[in-house]
Amino acid sequence: MVICTAVALVHVALVFLHVAPANTVSQQYSKQINAWVYPVFEQNWRLFAPDPESVNREISARTLRTDPDGTVRVSGWFDLSGVDRAATEHNPFPSHTTQNMLRRAWSSYLETLGGDDQPRSERAVMVQRYLRNIAVDRVTAHRGGSFDSIQLRVITLPVSPPDQAGSSRPSGTAAPRPVETRYLPWWKVAPHGTD
């Protein structure tokens, strides 16, 4: 009981220092505070000043396995974003994790690694592993089996404006065309999926 209370108090203090205006304590211990907060407990003000997405991203994954005889097997693409949509579509109380984990992992990846997929900081390496581990966990949960590497594909689609009646796409128009399709490099996977 004492340990749980102590951890809770430390957690509240660290998150408070993270969201509070810059001060001597938060500046002096910024490395420790950020190590605790990112990526799981990250706080931001988007709830109060939302920046709505102008694009939709469809994130898919495929796996690679090398058999003992040397045969290389590459799976088909598995729609990770579709798993999230299915989990929230008819759920009256979808969890924050279900709605945002993959999307926030991708936006953090873009912020820290940019367009060349080369991590240049410890945080970038951590975010890359975090995104990979989410993909590995979801593919393993829905497909099973073992694999040696995983690759992600991100298709970016523009958000189409609603028509007069409020539907998301005017009748008779085609689905929006991809703005960009990005293939991430193959990432090695530890025997149990993550490291």
TrEMBL record:
<keyword id="KW-0732">Signal</keyword>
<protein>
    <submittedName>
        <fullName>Uncharacterized protein</fullName>
    </submittedName>
</protein>
<feature type="signal peptide">
    <location>
        <begin position="1"/>
        <end position="24"/>
    </location>
</feature>
<dbReference type="Pfam" id="PF19136">
    <property type="entry name" value="DUF5819"/>
</dbReference>
<dbReference type="InterPro" id="IPR043857">
    <property type="entry name" value="DUF5819"/>
</dbReference>
